[in-house]
Amino acid sequence: MGRGTSKAILSLLVCALAGSASQAQFGKLKKSPEPPSEEVQQVLAWLPSDTETVVVANGPFSLPDLGTRDEETPGVESFFDLEENFEALPLGLFGFKGQILSSRLLGQKVAFAIEGARHFQITEGLGTAPFEGCSIAVFQRDVSDRAAAFLKDSAKRALPSEQIEDQKVAVFQAQLENDQWTFYVDFPKPTVALACTNRDYLREVLVRMRDSRGVTALPDNLPEWKYIDTHDQFWGLRHFTKPQPGSAPAAGASVEKPTEFDAGLNGDSPAYVPDDQPIGLTFRLDPSKSRTAVLTYFSGDKDIVHKLKDSELSGSGEPEPRALDVIFSEIAPGVVSIAYHLGGSPDSVNHFLVLLGTSLGHAIFI
Length: 366
Known about the structure:
This protein is an alpha+beta fold. The chain is 22% helix and 27% strand.
């Protein structure tokens, strides 16, 4: 059934959070953030122009174990525990087929990791919603030896390789619940590894790596950029696009499979924000500065704060809402920050990361 793949992708949404916070800390950044580093700008330029979501982990850090933690997993006890959970967020696609790729790269020093994604879809059954995108890792050293070992050892489990642009790309298929996923793996530079779910997305990344001129993904005039500091250790951005037929909901948590959608949101389910004017959202966290994660939600609905407080983003449901201790701040009409302080409860941790993952497009249908 592709259980290893299921665990690896679901591990994007399982880890660490809960606690208390001071409202004065949150909302718009106290000062204008510095421009993104040259490396961040370069990698963002590789992404297709219609990319809807990016999730970033700034390094250096060792590539973590992408296996799913079980119910016995203790709560967050140190900055290391917390960081390792969030380092895995942009690297989830490396964990396909029982981590045959990530196990070869385990412990290698990552300078920068990013996931770009678009076209989130409804799953055929239960599990993680399919999407088009790539996990990209930029390493501090040449990993060509690891790449060669992976390609040799995984050859019997791969489909025939494909020539995409000027690259010989390894191709794999895996079953994730009722959906069959295809994974494309490439090492276009000695220090870069890609794991993608869509041939066309990968092709455009490779083209843009050679020449990134033209329209960029998530241009810097979007309002969301004012609420991100790209020098924070972990951050993400989603700018909602007009949903395609069968697209997945935009914000919320694990839900029963929906039957009707309104502007990409499930208007019938309490798990989603009933918003017909969604613009985007951001996420930021830097454990070296604070154990508080902040989501900032943007809407054309100037009274959206009231709907957000009644939505799953308030931390309602299981575990008990008080475990997440959510704080809302209306920064401006239609712009609301939602703060979640880090804590030690495994249940609240898992709950938060499901909220975060689904808000960024990675819905899980149950």
